[in-house]
Specification:
It is an enzyme of class 2 (transferase). It catalyses: adenylyl-molybdopterin + molybdate = Mo-molybdopterin + AMP + H(+). Belongs to the MoeA family. By secondary structure, the chain is α+β, with helices and mostly antiparallel strands. It is 22% helix and 27% strand. The strands form twelve sheets. Strands 7-4-6-5-9-8 form a six-stranded mixed beta sheet, with no helix packed on it. The protein has a six-stranded mixed beta sheet with strand order 16-13-17-20-19-18, sandwiched between helices. Helix 10 (572-581) links the parallel strand 34 (566-567) and strand 35. It is elongated, with a radius of gyration of 31 Å. The chain starts with 12 loop residues before the first helix and ends in a 5-residue tail after the last helix.
Length: 671
Amino acid sequence: MTEQRQFLQVVDPDVAVARWWAAARPVPLASEELALADLCGRVLAEAVASPRDVPGFDRSNVDGYAVRAGDTYGASELAPARLRLRPEVVVPGVPPAMTLGPGEAVAIATGGAVVRGADAVVMVEDTDEEAGVLLVRRPVVPGAMIAVVGNDITRGEVVLRPGVRLGPRETAVLAAVGRAAAYVVRRPRVAILSTGDELVAPGGPLLPGQVHDCNQTFLADSVRELGGEPLALGVVGDDPAALDLALRTALHERRCDVLLLSGGTSKGAGDLSAAAVARLPGPAPAEPAVCVHGVALKPGKPLCLAVTAVGERRVPIAVLPGFPTSALFTFHEFVAPLLRALAGLRAAAAPAIAATLPHDLASERGRREYALVQLLAGPEEHVFKNMPDREGSSGHAPEDRIPIALPTGKGSGSVTAFCRADGFIAVPRQTERLLAGAAVEVRPIDRDAAAPDLVIAGSHCTGLEHLVDRLHAQGLTVRLLAQGSQGGLAAAARGLCDVAPIHLLDPDTDEYNRAFVPDGCDLMPGYGRMQGLVSRKDDPRFPDPIAGAGFGLPACVRDPEVFLVNRNRGSGTRILLDALLGPGPRPSGYSHEARSHSGVAACVASGRADWGVAISSVADAAGLRFAPIRLESYDFVIPRARRPRRAVQLFLAALADPEVRADLRAAGFVL
């Protein structure tokens, strides 16, 4: 009669996972540097900040003529504006060495650098040439047909964070910021053994009672899909000595990070694999290797989980049931999450997503239109009600919060728009507009698409990256939306973000931020930033600053030959500058806008502009003269309904953390 051995102890699946992970202590493996050509499919191990602005200069989006927008106002087909056409032609790759004067125009090709003095480009289709005169038949506004410096990516902006699986979109971003290599998480080396006299490798002849081994192929391809490196070690028969040798080879010679076996883990006399694993040393002295043998599953009850020590390394081992269906269930339920942790990947996300639109989305009738979207967590009152059942929906239960599908809008030339999108929605071809609140189906670009844990919308700051880095290290996914202070306030008022950074000066009270907090929101103190006038150190028209003193605008900014680079509308810096300028005429270049402090610094450093207003840390990094104007408060508006959320509490804890505050002080911020 065959001896029947009982399992060590049949445990609950959650208990089995807890025991195994406690013994294995899985963390992302060490990083390795790879060339750009080898990065696709790998998991990023570092935060990648752009060393430059993209684009790095103001460039034309079309073939046409660089002009001063004001010279075209009132132009029409019957009464075109007449501009003196300069003989030069601005082509891509050649920096223009000229300044465009009033009433002048110069030909410019797509991708050409916008000349000094110009603030718009008129398309060639809207013009005619006539004996050295350009006839402009349609007016343009400042900024028309121009991609301003840093419009896509600003210098110092973190474009990719650790844990991202690099695909073609992400590698394109790395290329766009000039990275030829990056550090990625080393792929987990997973040794795979099949056991049993009845198993034959695919392609081999079968004797009566034998079957082809399909588990090794399934497990190897599943490991590869999860970012691991499978080490297929073949089939070992029911021979204890041969099995012990195979285990030693996998652990010591092949130096695997994880060892998978299938078969030989039942409670009968054929329980060879579990017995062989039990003979291995445990993860620590006096600790057994086997953590669990027997889990309350159907199918999959014979599962055996263990951890052995190989020098200083802890190697997790799973002995999966031999039946393919049981092996499939137990692999995905127990092994896959551990492999993802070792590979630096987050837990698998839901494969399909139902969401709603935060605002109207127009479309062209007669064509199916696709819109890239980012997923944001919906407000607390935004629950899954009255949503029609659709095939492939996300499976949200009633009363679950519905994610918001925020359409991205950086244009076809933006690298980051495609990289940062979580998915896309399809607007039916006979639909001209989807209304705010409409239910939409988001088709994920990859299986990891999900709403982030924390959404920060408003004014961007390099100091904010310190806070986000801390939250990311704690396992949170954070999405930063640089929309300016007023854009952040609008998002907070509508419950579309968790945190809105602002720095808005109230001219009536000379106080920052408090007067602008919407109803239902709280203001949390942040830190101070010194705003100042930036100019090139070799420009004699600007006086040197006086240490420790506030600084007004020097008289030279009113010189029509001295050009300003302004900030975008809605930004706190733009509002501050308007207050300094007063109601009088605006300086040259006032309509030239940059979307960040880094963009201002880049324009001044390149000579495209002569001065602007930015924070001291950015000016120092760009090697510019900095004349302080005033210390401003960079604070955070938080919707009261979102404040209890765990991610918001972790943000506030990071803001108060002494180590983070020390990092901010070291970077030049005031606390």
